[in-house]
TrEMBL record:
Keyword vocabulary terms for this entry: Cuticle, Signal
Gene Ontology MF term list: structural constituent of cuticle
One Pfam family here: Chitin_bind_4
GO cellular component: extracellular matrix; extracellular space
Name of this chain's protein: Cuticle protein 19
Signal peptide (from-to): 1-21
Record organism: Hyalella azteca (Amphipod)
Gene: LOC108667632
PROSITE patterns assigned to the protein according to its UniProt record, in alphabetical order: CHIT_BIND_RR_1, CHIT_BIND_RR_2
Keyword Electron transport attributed: no
Length: 129
């Protein structure tokens, strides 16, 4: 009798494992329906920019794609005052290429005075009583 119970437990365990391993598709689609499908790339274009004269951020980007290659550029105001413009192209055949140009002259702050340093000042020995 113990041998029969053992066999029943093993059979039930195998059935549960097989059921759990089978993929379930609740929507009635085949399991491999979308395997290997990749939709073709779609053309797009966009642009944006900010030029805040009061607080300083100045940058822009524009880009467009025909679905195969991408072309665009972006411009950034650097901390030293120059503008950095990057013009780029990219595709799956030739990779990514960028042309970087700078305009304006780099400006650095003057050295000025040495920083003000506060040193602690004690009057006499501060001991513990």
């Amino acid at each position: 009798m113990a041998g029969l119970r053992c066999c029943v437990v093993v059979v039930i365990a195998v059935m549960v494992a097989a059921t759990a391993a089978t993929p379930t598709d609740f929507y009635g689609h085949g399991g491999d329906h979308h395997k290997g499908y990749k939709p073709p790339p779609k053309p797009y274009s966009f642009s944006y920019g900010i030029d805040d004269k009061h607080y300083g951020p100045s940058f822009m980007q524009q880009e467009k794609s025909d679905g195969h290659s991408v072309k665009g550029s972006y411009t950034v105001q650097l901390p030293d005052g120059r503008l950095q413009t990057v013009t780029y192209t990219a595709d799956h055949d030739n990779g990514f290429f960028a042309d970087v140009k700078y305009s304006g002259k780099a400006q650095y702050p003057s050295k000025g005075h040495p920083p003000f340093i506060v040193k602690p000042h004690h009057h006499g020995d501060i001991g513990y009583h």
